[in-house]
Amino acid sequence: MGNQILAASVLMAIAGGMVASQAPINAALGRGIASPIGAATLSFGVGFVILVVATLLMGDGPNLLRVTKVPVWMLIGGALGAVYVVAALWSVPKLGVLTTTTLMIFGQMGAALLLDHLGAFGVAQSSISPMRILSAGLVAVGVILSRW
């Protein structure tokens, strides 16, 4: 395994732990302020401030002005993230962190199979195969097991 592949694998494992932690933290914030949507707003606000500071510190501030040159559909990622944050903070108290996270991963895998197969949004095309379906199926089994 190359260094970049190892680094990316470690980084994503750490990020996955952060996503699992984000949902219950945001759910607690939602309870604390008595507003799930308000909690999502605050969560995105904090993230926005951190990203703006990081962008400016890295000297990439002027690149933000290029947003006027990209198709509007490319901005939908923020909306998708907002739906995830609200769905997760609403679901954690009802399903628990493990089941919520497992369902999120299952949904990601289903979408990823399709996006890879289509080569959507400029990603390398990778056909759906029995092994790839099996990997998503095993996560589906994990969803069921997480409820026992």
From TrEMBL:
One of its GO terms (cellular component) is plasma membrane. The chain crosses the membrane at residues 37-58, 70-90, 96-115. It comes from Pelagivirga sediminicola. Keywords: Membrane, Transmembrane, Transmembrane helix. This is EamA-like transporter family protein.
